[in-house]
Amino acid sequence: MKVTFLGTGTSQGIPVIGSDHPVCMSTNLKDKRLRVSVLIEWDDFTYIIDCGPDFRQQMLTANCSRIDGIVFTHEHADHTAGLDDIRPFYFRQGDIPFYAHKRVLGELAKRFDYIFTTKDKYPGVPSVIQHEIKNESFSLGNLQVMPINGYHYKLQVFGFRFGDFAYLTDMKTVADEEVEKLKGVKVLVVNALREKEHMSHFNLKEALDFIDKVKPETAYLTHISHYLGFHDVVQQTLPENVYLAYDNLKIEL
Ligand SMILES: [Zn+2]
After folding, report:
1. Distance from the alpha carbon of residue 181 to the mean position of ligand 1, in angstroms
2. Which of 1, 87, 83, 86 lies closest to 46, judged by CA?
3. Mean pLDDT over all residues of the chain?
4. What is the 5 CA–ligand 1 centroid distance (Å)?
């Protein structure tokens, strides 16, 4: 399995528009963060998790010309606002499979009604195949994927375990029985916003405590704010099996 981090930034991305914060001014490419998404490839299958406002740019950078579907964690705009740009995939492949909680599918149908409607479609508008995810395993390609239920403040969010790889973002609370589902995972990706506490995201300490509970071989932090600091500085403070993810990082399992 090959995983590409398409984006690793929090909702505004880094740099933040108009900001003169030193991290936003950094010339290190590891301090440039698009909105979070990952590309997961195994055998002949290619899926992405989330489809934020940087989706087009991310697909071009990753040289990705075909996807088998998009899996959504939740409906917030930094995870869904790029939806119109599935058009090139739709033109080549036909209807694009979406996998999401029923509530998320409903929200997307409100925001992108022209995509979800089945009558009087404007020519060139893409179409999707909706797959509802419940908190039970579902198949993607030849793999059974296990959702991990958590909360982003009060909003339900799904993380996902693809065999030895798990990806959780926008988590603030995860019940013990959900953490159990992550036991034995080799690579864990989890969100870490900044050092200071936040109402709806793990801060760095909460992310490290979470990693300590799951005990993966290796962990990567994502959904990072400029307030966390410079990549190269923060990386030196982390335990030896924990890494700050950065855009275009590729890992193989
Ligand atoms: Zn987010």
Report:
1. 22
2. 1
3. 97
4. 15
> 10 alpha carbon to ligand 1 midpoint, in Å?
6
Residue 120 phi, psi dihedral angles, 5° rounding: 50, 45
Query: Which helix or strand (DSSP H or E) is residue 116 part of?
Result: helix 113-116
Separation of CA 105 and ligand 1 centre (Å): 17
- Cα of 26 vs centre of ligand 1, distance in Å, is 22
Residues 107 and 194: their CA atoms lie apart, in Å, by 28
Model confidence over 83-110: pLDDT tens digits? 999 999 999 999 999 999 999 999 999 9
**CA 120 to centroid of ligand 1, rounded, Å:** 33
pLDDT digits (tens, 9 = 90+) for 154-202: 999 999 999 999 999 999 999 999 999 999 999 999 999 999 999 999 9
Exposure pattern of 142-163 as b/e (b: 16+ CB <10 Å)?
ebebbbbbbebeeeebbbbbbe
pLDDT in tens, 186-244: 999 999 999 999 999 999 999 999 999 999 999 999 999 999 999 999 999 999 999 99
Q: How many domains does the chain have?
A: 1
CB-based contacts of 243, cutoff 8 Å, min separation 6: 218, 219, 220, 221, 235
- Distance (angstroms) between ligand 1 centre and the Cα of 8 equals 10
User: At 148, which CATH number?
Assistant: 3.60.15.10
Structural domain for 163, as ranges: 2-252
pTM of the model: 0.97
Report the alpha-carbon distance of residue 179 to residue 42 in Å, rounded.
25
